[in-house]
Design goal:
Blueprint lengths: L2 E5 L3 H14 L4 E6 L16 H7 L4 H7 L3 E3 L1 E5 L7 E5 L12 H10 L11 H7 L21 E3 L2 H14 L3 E4 L2 E6 L5 E6 L4 E3 L2 E4 L16 E3 L8 E7 L8 E7 L2 E7 L4 E7 L6 H10 L10 E4 L3 E3 L3 E2 L2 E3 L5 E2 L7 H14 L8 H27 L6 H8 L4 H13 L12 H10 L16 H21 L3 H8 L7
Parallel strand pairs: 1-2, 1-11, 2-7, 4-14, 11-20
Antiparallel strand pairs: 3-6, 4-5, 8-9, 9-10, 12-18, 13-16, 13-17, 14-15, 15-16, 18-21, 19-20
Helix pairs in contact: 1-6, 1-8, 4-13, 8-9
The protein binds flavin-adenine dinucleotide (FAD).
């Protein structure tokens, strides 16, 4: 194992290159081929907190990274009109209230709610309360007794600028970039990938290949014919349209997802502009209708023509096949409702480093890698499907979603939740209990009862416990700076790039 070739220079390609460059420290000869003429998707703008681990691994300075990518902070996602028009809730990152004795905070809230004594669930999350008030600050490590010690965050950024920034780091670590369009892929007699040929005839050989070529899956699908698990029966949206508009004030620390007639619309506030997009089902609305709907719902001046994309939700049958691993859109696509795609790149790239072959690839390692990938993708899919299924909206699209048969893994989770309000995070499942709880309650799926141990406390004690949490969170939010001010002081970007 001497030479690694990364095919593709989108977010996935450069994230992989920067990570390999940093962690492999020159152990392998690493080259990346990309074609400017083909270009990148480049619309991924919202992330989840785990991205901080990736940024730490490659030693990014946070303020510098945010300046260079026009980034803002993200405390969670605001879901508007998902159950029915007029309803909204937030999936905030981080903890909800605090545990008490054996139980999580929401168990006491369920009891108080039964008695009509609970405040909105949002009042027990520092992230949600701060997001709604447009406030932000970093968590204070010296204040772990306070909600201020538990603020969790991710970023909203310009993915094209992120890839550009990562490219400079990767090249600094010795990754070679070759410009050119791959027109042919050669395999060995055994069926492994041997080399790629560029327009103009240059042949690039390697021992191991990372396919980051985007939806086309140049190596993993077009060459190795790996196959695709189509999940569109659960995630029927198959088109997206992205369009930037002028930045509007205030700069909120939340990604917004608003349900529409046949899909949903995102709104992601960055420093230099706001990213918008519509994700929709082409069986329920045509492209012209979708474009009109998107453009009618921008809250700033439109800055470019819509970028139109087609996809099929799902994933490759094997992310690692022979001497090739697919990452990013080449590996599959889960729509951006919970901002998970960049995370799935990061997680697979780190997993690959941890399982990197020592010499020849062995099937046991490949199978284990694929098993872990399948698990992560399936559980992430389930979390996204939950949002669609739990709705009372009008229209054929939403009716289909609420009557579809759920994946068994999701149905089991909902059934356990419905009995006593319990959620169990399995293995390395991406979303923690707090995320499931907020979305289940947010989407109106209420359990029949709560944990019996709640009865150890009197209603008065519970009311006092919950009241204290909400009051403390309210006080903390009052003293936090606004998100606009925080960004302006901490990581101001040049507004025109
Ligand atoms: C509508 C939409 C919204 C999204 N929103 C989010 C979000 O909010 N959060 C999030 O985490 N993720 C999001 N994503 C996903 C995110 O954009 C992608 O995961 C990420 O951009 C990775 O893309 P990629 O690098 O795999 O592919 P691409 O960006 O398509 O890059 C492919 C690369 O391969 C190269 N290439 C292809 N063919 C050849 C060839 N023949 N020869 C040479 N080079 C070639 C191209 O030049 C390019 O460099 C979104 C995706 C879509 C479609």
């Amino acid at each position: 194992m001497k030479k690694i070739l990364i095919v593709g220079g989108g977010t996935a390609g450069w994230m992989t290159a920067a990570l390999f460059g940093k962690l492999f420290q020159g152990l392998y000869d690493i080259e990346l081929v990309e074609s400017e003429a083909i270009g990148t998707v480049g619309v991924g703008e919202a992330t989840i907190p785990a991205i901080k681990k990736y940024n730490d691994l490659i030693k990014l300075d946070e303020a510098e990274f945010m300046r260079r990518t026009q980034a803002t902070f993200k405390l969670g996602i605001e879901f508007i009109d998902w159950i029915r028009p007029g309803h909204r809730y937030i999936h905030g990152f981080g903890v909800i209230g605090q545990d008490w004795e054996w139980l999580r905070c929401h168990q006491y809230w369920l009891r108080a709610n039964e008695r009509g004594q609970a405040r909105p669930f949002a009042d027990y999350s520092i992230n949600t309360a701060a997001g709604l008030a447009n406030k932000f600050m970093h968590a204070r490590a010296d204040m772990l007794e306070s909600p201020i010690g538990h603020i969790a965050y991710a970023f909203q950024f310009d993915a094209t600028l992120y890839a550009k920034y990562l490219r400079s780091l990767a090249e600094h670590h010795g990754i070679r970039r070759t410009e050119g369009r791959i027109v042919d892929v050669a395999t060995t007699r055994d069926g492994d990938i041997a080399s790629v040929t560029l327009e103009g005839g240059q042949v690039v050989e390697a021992d191991f290949f990372i396919d980051c070529s985007g939806f086309r899956g140049l190596l993993i699908e077009q060459t190795l014919k790996t196959g695709y698990d189509d999940w569109s029966r659960w995630l029927p949206c198959d088109r997206a349209m992205a369009v930037p508009c002028k930045r509007t004030e205030p700069l909120i620390p939340l990604t917004r997802a608003t349900a529409r007639d046949a899909g949903w619309q995102w709104r992601i506030p960055l420093q230099h502009r706001t990213g918008n997009g519509l994700v929709y089902s082409s069986r329920h609305i045509d492209d012209d209708g979708a474009e009109a709907l998107l453009l009618a719902n921008l809250d700033g001046e439109q800055l470019a023509n819509p970028n139109k994309l087609r996809f099929t939700s799902g994933k490759r049958r094997k992310m690692w096949n022979r001497n090739c691993v697919a990452l990013g859109l080449a590996a599959g696509f889960l729509e951006p409702l919970e901002s998970t795609s960049i995370h799935l790149v990061q997680s697979a790239a780190v997993r690959l480093v941890r399982m990197f072959p020592n010499g020849a690839t062995d099937q046991a390692t490949i199978d284990e890698f694929n098993r872990q990938e399948d698990f992560e993708w399936e559980r992430t899919r389930d979390f996204i499907v939950l949002h669609y299924w739990a709705n009372e909206r009008d229209g054929e699209f939403w009716k289909y979603c609420r009557t579809m048969e759920l994946p068994a893994t999701l149905q089991r989770k909902i059934d356990v939740w419905r009995s006593n309000g319990r959620i169990f995070r399995e293995d390395e499942e991406l979303f923690a209990e707090e995320s499931w709880i907020q979305v289940l309650i947010g989407q109106g799926i209420m359990p029949r009862s709560h944990d019996p141990l709640v009865a150890i406390k009197s209603d008065e004690q519970i009311s006092q416990f919950l009241g204290n949490i909400a009051t403390t969170i309210g006080r903390c939010v009052d003293v936090m700076p606004t998100h606009d001010d925080y960004v302006r002081n901490y990581c101001p970007a040049d507004l025109i790039q």
